[in-house]
Amino acid sequence: xxxxxxxxxxxxxxxxxxxxxxxxxxxxxxxxxxxxxxxxxxxxxxxxxxxxxxxxxxxxxxxxxxxxxxxxxxxxxxxxxxxxxxxxxxxxxxxxxxxxxxxxxxxxxxxxxxxxxxxxxxxxxxxxxxxxxxxxxxxxxxxxxxxxxxxxxxxxxxxxxxxxxxxxxxxxxxxxxxxxxxxxxxxxxxxxxxxxxxxxxxxxxxxxxxxxxxxxxxxxxxxxxxxxxxxxxxxxxxxxxxxxxxxxxxxxxxxxxxxxxxxxxxxxxxxxxxxxxxxxxxxxxxxxxxxxxxxxxxxxxxxxxxxxxxxxxxxxxxxxxxxxxxxxxxxxxx
Length: 334
What we know:
Elements: H1 20-29, H2 31-51, H3 107-121, E1 125-136, E2 139-140, E3 144-151, E4 156-163, E5 171-175, E6 183-186, H4 189-195, E7 198-200, H5 220-234, E8 241-250, E9 253-261, E10 273-279, E11 285-292, E12 302-314
Antiparallel strand pairs: 1-2, 1-3, 1-12, 3-4, 4-5, 5-6, 6-7, 8-9, 9-10, 10-11, 11-12
Helix pairs in contact: 1-2, 3-5
């Protein structure tokens, strides 16, 4: 994500994961085979909206006031977290909030983000509970809750859905450079029994259903990278107001909120208002939220997306087993 690119709608290619040859072969056998194929295809499409995703957010709180702090997520079922964890303390310097004469208002935030990205690159892996909510087709969906494990080299993701109930129990694994670049995922109940573990393109039409971004863009490192890219682009233009707000909290973690606002809608800008909450101890972004311009003057900004990382634990020493469908702690079946 970044100061704007995060707000751009993903466009997934309209490819059919089954392949025309498989359907044609089934149809050629008999009318009965054709019907079975169509039923299977329909059931498969129902499975997928749950199986794929990526990223974040917290319980159904309304964190529109950075100074007020955010309500902790209610306790979910026990989450698989490694016990080992090396603390990271990368407190940002107070100087990153100071603006030099005649420089763009975003420059202090960009200096912080560049330093924060270097700090994050020193992190080997981490786990977190992610809560996310996104606007898809001009409709804001419900909060989704996920437990994730992320390893930076090679980039690897394990994801388990904690909620809502329609998604709970589904798992996804992605490892960069393996499985032909595809993700491995499974549903629950009858869907799992019928289809087991399936392999899908992370940016394919099925994997992207109900998502703004593919799983390949998940994580605090990707978030920071995009913030830097979009911030650099926005420094080419004016009409930008930046505030640093102390005293915000994310699940009890002390944070500084960087708020960026573009008062007027312009083609160059991808959002009206964005807020990034930085953990003051670890210098890691724990929350990003972005809003579109109001539909009418004086109206409330409209939520585009929000992602929150809770219970983030770094450097847990994850191995290949943490990203293996054969892990006995996971529910994949081959």
